[in-house]
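Side project, low priority. Logging it here so it doesn't get lost.
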Amino acid sequence: MSEPFTPAQMEKMLQVAAGRLGTTPEALKTAFQKDGLKGISASLPPQQAEKMGAITKNGQAEKLLDDPAVQRLLIQLLGQ
């Protein structure tokens, strides 16, 4: 069973993702809470939305994020 991310780790991931997507952590969080990954991709420029659509197709992103090894890697990458 995987351990959930701490609030500090989630905040750091939001900051990193928002920076890479050209948005704010608050806007990213709001979009995700409203419509999940589809909400995030709807607010992206067309080229980035297309890339995100390829990643999120068939629930692959959710499965990937549920993987304990991926979670450990993300934690290491974020310096937590």
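Brief comment: The mean pLDDT is 78.
Revisit when time allows.
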